Amino acid sequence: MRISTANSHATSIETLMDRQVKLSDTQEQMTSGKRVNRASDDPAAAARAERAHAAERRADASQRAVDASSNAMTLTESALGDAGDLMQQVREALVSAGNATFGDTERAGLANQIADLRQQLLSVANRTDGSGNHLFGGQSASVAPFSDVPGGVQFQGAPGATRSASADALPLTLDGSAAWMNARTGNGVFETSAATSTGSAWIDAGKVTDPSVITGSTYAIQFSVSGGNTTYSVLKDGVATAQANVAFKPGQAVQIDGMSASIAGQPANGDLFQLTPSTPSMSVFDALDKAIAELKTPNRSGTRIAQSNAANLNNVDVVMNQLGSVRSQVGATMNRVDAVTRRISAQKLASQTERSNAEDLDMTQAISNFANQQTGYDAALKAYSMVQRLSLFNYLNG
Q1: In sequence order, which residues have a C-beta less than 8 Å from that of residue 261 and are 6 or more positions away?
Q2: Rounded mean pLDDT, 210-232
Q3: Which of 35, 177, 201, 239 fits as disulfide partner to 265, beta carbons 3.0 to 4.6 Å?
Q4: What residues form DSSP beta bridges with 234?
């Protein structure tokens, strides 16, 4: 078979150009560090890399939502910690109010101290995250959730919580109503009070002795004093019970259907103490307002002061426990945020690994290929130069 000089020349040019293109592609890959620089390089690998890149972007978006929740919950936890410290100062003031040597002036001074702490607590309850969103605003975080109006502090926010628009739906705000306004009255199950107390007796907050027999009814402990003997009778929803004309001993607990309450001092004839079911209606600010008002009331008897101090201390303990419980919930949320962050980081790393496997270059292999291609290109140049000399004139001259 005869091969023309023109055919040899064209074949050499074609081979030279092909090797030059491959050499250029390898140089581009080595410069970029990627095996796939455009979809045409490897369509299947390019598709894998694009899917992995999309997963990375989703992970970044999710992490931004998680970061927003983490910031909000960190600030919320800090606010609840500050509230706990302020409430502890309130409690110390109420304990001081029980000092038997204090008069109306000293108690009024403590009331003013608690009033100042109340204003600080209101500021904490209306705290923002630095971007204008109120931490305790619930689903209406753009407006201050608590307003101090005649009659007490009112919740102006929307119940519930604002959550991030992500698969994990982490909270960005807290339900301020649940945190600050809905503590259970009394000891959480029932509430004691002195409906009528003309003697020197006062009742404590009581405790639950058997939850299985709690009825949810209202009970009254009615005292009768006759001939130097003090007895009491228990009424259930206004109806007499089997506990009638029971001899009373000061400080001895009265047992009623799984509940126990101690009455100290000496009741007078007709004195009446009540046990009513607890309700989730006590706010932090109402508890403080009640304590302030009673501390400022002059000319109270020692019995009224003791009963008031005991009730106010119990109320403060209840709302402190409520705030502490909410703080624990926020802590649990922060732990969840950390767990979600770790999961998102793992997902992002997996996506980055998949993308790298699809499009990144094996540099060692690329250098070896480049050396081989360069050798091939040099050989193609030499072959082309030899073809260039295949002419009749070169033959005659030789």
Answers
A1: 192, 203, 204, 205, 206, 207, 221, 253, 254, 273, 275
A2: 93
A3: 201
A4: 221
Residue of 261, 303, 291 lying closest to 95 (CA atoms) = 291
H or E stretch including 231?
strand 229-236
Q: pLDDT by residue (tens digit) across 126-162? A: 999 888 889 999 888 788 999 999 989 999 988 888 8
pLDDT digits (tens, 9 = 90+) for 253-268: 999 999 999 999 899 9
Cα–Cα distance between 274 and 196 in angstroms, integer? 9
**Token duo for residue 51:** 């899917």
**Whole-angstrom distance, CA of residue 119 vs CA of residue 130:** 20
- Integer Cα distance of 216 and 273 in angstroms: 17
CA-wise closest residue to 22 among 357, 376, 356: 376
According to DSSP, residue 177 is labeled I
| Alpha-carbon distances, residue 237 vs 134, 246, 259, 338 (angstroms) | 44, 19, 15, 51
